[in-house]
Amino acid sequence: MLPHINTRSACSSVSRVAFASLVAAVCVHVGCSVSPEIDARRCVVWGPGLSPDAVLPVRYFYIQSVDSEGHNLSASPAADSFRVKIWSLEKEFVRVHVPAPLDRGDGSLLVRYRLYGSSSKGLKIEVLYQDKPVADSPYTLQGPVYHESCVCPERDPSVWRSALQCPEDEPQIQQDFLSFPSIDLQRLLREVPERFSRRGGLLHYSLVNNQLHRRSLGKYTDFKMFSDEMLLSLARKVKLPDVEFYINVGDWPMENRKAGDEPGPLPIISWCGSTDTRDIILPTYDITHSSLEAMRGVTSDLLSVQGHTGPVWSDKTEKAFFRGRDSREERLRLVAMSKENPELLDAGITAYFFFRDREKDLGKAPLVGFFDFFKYKYQVNVDGTVAAYRFPYLMLGNSLVFKQDSPYYEHFYTHLKAGVHYIPVKRDLSDLLQKIRWAQKNDTQAEAIAKSGQSLVRDLLQPHRLYCYYYSVLQTYAARQSTRPAVHPDMELVPQPSDPSALCDCQRSSEELDPLQKNEL
Ligand SMILES: *[C@@H]1O[C@H](CO)[C@@H](O)[C@H](O)[C@H]1NC(C)=O
Ligand SMILES: *[C@@H]1O[C@H](CO)[C@@H](O)[C@H](O)[C@H]1NC(C)=O
């Protein structure tokens, strides 16, 4: 495969290595195996972490390593040969946590950093490959560079969206709102509690003047911490439209009326959609929360998983893998299939709750760390109570995902094509074994599908894109409100957390007023 081609071309170019002092070669294996020469200046560095205005809990950017002939490397350079230093330009010390770059296993690296305070002057980012500056390093991020917890919304949403390079439109959002050309808030106020509060997990929010207010309409609303934290984080960054809406924090989507029904469907916002319901969906609390808490407590998130995708394809075990709870009958079926076909499938239930009586036949498998899943070439994604929220992470690994057909979906599925980005399997799993055999026989195609899925999802599931998505849902919803949003007497203010150590000195509202001063400088 490609990595071998690169290795060979580097071996045959020993003379170039000898005369070009700028070019470095590192022996990674015994024998004649020299890693390809990286030309530091030709490497490509990009991503939102190079923009001061892309305020995120964890900022990040990418490095693609490029050889002296301008070819992208497709195998890992020794990750520790790239070093990144980030410091603030003022005298006062601002702590910046910069872990070692994550090796994405394909010649590219992911650099993450978390600020512990704001920097009014700005940041300097230095990227070095064996002490030589990479691409246009050093990079200067002109201050102010705000900390995640600064309440400093950009007044002009188009400026904010362009700093994050948000996509023009999201097909899922357009589709979700087809059922709701106009939203009458008075009607929702009368009908939503009556129809849905018994379901337990409903919250009623009003965002007015960028302040968040809410009331709970059910007994099981502890997960409001997840919707609160994201809505507050968004409101700190950008001026949101005034908007009043209902979020369902329970597992199942709720609204089963169809667009043409009389009375028509109500716009309920949920984390998971299904083909039988009309709920408007948001990125799940799982990927959202892990993006907010990455690098402080959470270990598996959309970024960290990219650096832990296991061995290279050819060194992975040629079997399908599954570990999980017993939340759906087909998961038990999968384990039974695995016992009969251990050469194709390694599946186990790690905890019993719904089907306790089956434990004595099927046994309980020990827990396996998520990153270890990627020691296997194939991953099986079987629904849990609704869509399995591990699917985004599985897609980010470099394994081939076998996805059970499902009526449930998350916000990004519409971009994925069966057979192109993953292998679809029937809901009853009856064609799974045959499809695993196909993959074993057609290794090149299997690897190509795994790669194309990974590459698409790496793009779609960047944490900053979650912010774009949340914003677009609120904005699309707001534009359809036929009556004015209001803060109701039984709502409580959800305050922004205070964080004095973030050194926030928001310049934004005054910035608009002093373009004259700037011109004089
Ligand atoms: C090399 O990688 C960069 C960064 O992903 C990409 O923009 C560029 O198109 C790639 N070049 C080639 C020739 O594939
Ligand atoms: C998969 O492999 C089989 C057996 O080697 C071969 O007959 C078939 O054409 C391959 N399928 C594809 C899509 O290449």
Automatic annotation (TrEMBL):
Residues 239-483 form the Glycosyl transferase CAP10 domain. It catalyses: L-seryl-[EGF-like domain protein] + UDP-alpha-D-glucose = 3-O-(beta-D-glucosyl)-L-seryl-[EGF-like domain protein] + UDP + H(+); L-seryl-[EGF-like domain protein] + UDP-alpha-D-xylose = 3-O-(beta-D-xylosyl)-L-seryl-[EGF-like domain protein] + UDP + H(+). Filamin repeats lie at residues 35-143. Coiled coil: none annotated. Pathway: Protein modification; protein glycosylation. InterPro entries: CAP10 (IPR006598), Filamin/ABP280_repeat-like (IPR017868), Filamin/ABP280_rpt (IPR001298), Ig-like_fold (IPR013783), Ig_E-set (IPR014756), O-Glucosyltr/Glycosyltrsf_90 (IPR051091). This is Glycosyl transferase CAP10 domain-containing protein. It comes from Cyprinus carpio carpio.
